[in-house]
Amino acid sequence: MTGNPQPSPHLTTAEAVVSNARRHLLTLTQGGRAVRREMGHDRSTGADQFAASIGRELSFGPFRLFPAQRLLQKADQPLRLGSRALDILITLVERPGELISKDELMARVWPDTFVEEENLRVHIATLRKTLGEGQDGHRYIINVPARGYCFVAPIRSSHVL
Length: 161
What we know:
Layout: H1 13-29, H2 33-39, H3 46-53, E1 56-60, E2 63-66, E3 71-74, E4 77-78, H4 83-93, E5 100-101, H5 102-109, H6 117-131, E6 141-144, E7 148-151, E8 156-159
Antiparallel strand pairs: 1-2, 1-8, 2-3, 3-4, 5-7, 6-7
């Protein structure tokens, strides 16, 4: 990639933000898969997913998720969550109410790597524990046996500066 192309002056504000985010992602990665993998995005759609999540806050129950910053908070306190579990959470929360297959989750979280389904189950269990699933009747993630997982809690989405 040569130079640093600027977005077209004919773009709307939203299109310019997305264009700048894509350019920023390309500058960061320069073809480096490791950075994209850490961000939890696959190679084919990483720029689009990254651009779409910039400045978004997704809230559910007492939690606030900031996908672009890779941050989960409860009562304004950051929660410790491993990168793989966070990748799974972001994937599920960005598509609430939608059944996401085990294969799709594993492909997104472990791109270009063969892993057993047990790895996915372990990280889902960690997520459930961190979210306090089952406490006070809270349900966040459901499993559809032999098919996949679905995020079932109501989500509020807002843009932050």
